[in-house]
Amino acid sequence: LEMKGLRAVAALALPFTLATVAPPRSAAFVPHRPHFLQRSHVVGCAVGAESTESVGAQAIRRYFAAWNCRDMEAACAEFSDKCTYEDTQYAGAFEGKEKLRAHLDKVADALPSSFSFCIDSVADGGESVGIQWHVENDGEPLPFTRGCSMYTIDPGSGKILSGFDVPEPAPLKPGSSSLLLLRVASLLIAEPVRGLPLVAWLLYVVVVFFSNGILPGPDATQLDGATWEEVRDLSLNFWLVAPLLHLPFAPTLHPMLEALFNALLAWAAAFAGFLADGRPGRPTGSVGNSMLPVVGGMQFLTNAFLLPYLVVRPREDGASPVYAEDLDGAAAMLGESRALPLVLGGVFTGSVSWGLLARPEFGDLAMRYASFCELLAGDRVASSFVVDLALFAAFQGWLVDDDLKRRGIGPKDAVALRGIARFVPFFGLCAYLASAQHSLPAADADRAWDVSL
Question: Which secondary structure element, helix H or strand E, spans residue 195, and what is its range?
Answer without folding.
Answer: helix 195-204
